[in-house]
Amino acid sequence: MADSISIKIKGAEKLKAKLKRIPPAVEVELRATIFEAATGVKNSIVAEIEKPKSGRIYKRRRRNKSWITWQASAPGEAPAKKTGQRMAQITVKKANRAGKPSSRIKAPGIYRLLENGTAKIAPRPLFGPIMRAYRHKFKDLIDGVVSRVLKVEIRK
Questions:
Q1: Longest CA–CA separation in the chain, Å
Q2: What stretches in the chain show pLDDT beneath 50?
Q3: What are 142-151's pLDDT values in tens digits?
Q4: Which residues pair with 60 in a beta bridge?
Q5: What's 11's DSSP letter?
Q6: What is the pTM of this model?
Q7: Over the stretch 109-135, which tens digit does the pLDDT of each residue have?
Q8: How far apart are CA 47 and CA 74, in angstroms?
Q9: Cα separations (Å) of 56 from 41, 75, 80?
Q10: 22-51 b/e with 16+ CB inside 10 Å = b?
């Protein structure tokens, strides 16, 4: 089961109401910019998962009698990568919503579960810290698109 993170622009509705509809040139640019930003978020998520962890070390015996070891994440760290199979399931897709440029980052549900923790597992935050780090970057990207495409001029 995949969970998803949705990237939405606050204020897009107000802008749309003022313009009656987002001009096609702005919408095209916004879609491309949001997809690019979402891809950056996905890359940051993958990088965070791949970072070395400081949790407990586990051993398991394979069928061919050799041993495999991996290190889990400690509480407060992002989830650890064991095989990379779940990490490979993290995808970015353009969301086709009329008049609402957006992108979706889909990730396996285990990451959302670990984000908040369970009764037996302490939280392993992943999405929250990354989204907080990108908050201002998103705003700057959107402001740049709107000002570049609309070419707003202020006269005295």
A1: 79
A2: none
A3: 888 877 776 6
A4: 68
A5: T
A6: 0.76
A7: 999 899 999 899 999 999 999 999 998
A8: 17
A9: 28, 10, 11
A10: beeebbebbbebbbebbebbbebbeebbee
